[in-house]
């Protein structure tokens, strides 16, 4: 079975409308990027799959984060880059 890897802008907007998103309060691209990120809760990892790549459920997770911070996914991207750099420098110190 194919795993969803990303959502198009059109798919994200359709889900956003179903969720009642008011686009003047949320950036549509942040929402689309958020849906892509939140696929990590899908079939990608059977141990943590809670959405089964369902677009509406994935959209709800993204919306929940954007309601906390409208720039949530910009901040997440920055934090992940910093974490990757940190752990690349410290991986030799990690236990086997």
Averaged pLDDT, please? 92
Overall geometry comes to: globular
Q: How many strand units?
A: 0
Using only CA atoms, what is the Rg?
Answer: 15 Å
Can you characterise this structure?
The radius of gyration is 15 Å and the shape is globular. Helix 2 (28-38) crosses helix 3. It is an all-alpha fold. It has helices spanning 9-18, 28-38, 55-68, 72-90. It has one domain. The mean pLDDT is 92.
Structure summarized in a few sentences:
The protein is an all-alpha fold. Helices cover 56% and strands 0% of the residues.
Topology:
Elements lengths: L8 H10 L9 H11 L16 H14 L3 H19 L6
What structural keywords apply?
single chain, 96 residues, mainly alpha, 56% helix, 0% strand
């Amino acid at each position: 079975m194919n795993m969803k890897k990303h959502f198009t802008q059109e798919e994200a907007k359709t889900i956003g409308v179903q969720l009642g998103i008011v686009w003047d309060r949320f950036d549509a691209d942040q929402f689309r990027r958020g849906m892509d990120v939140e696929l990590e809760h899908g079939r990608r990892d059977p141990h943590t799959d809670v959405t089964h790549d369902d677009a509406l459920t994935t959209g709800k997770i993204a919306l929940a984060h954007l309601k906390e911070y409208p720039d949530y996914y910009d901040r997440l991207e920055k934090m992940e880059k910093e974490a990757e750099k940190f752990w690349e420098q410290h991986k030799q110190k990690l236990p086997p």
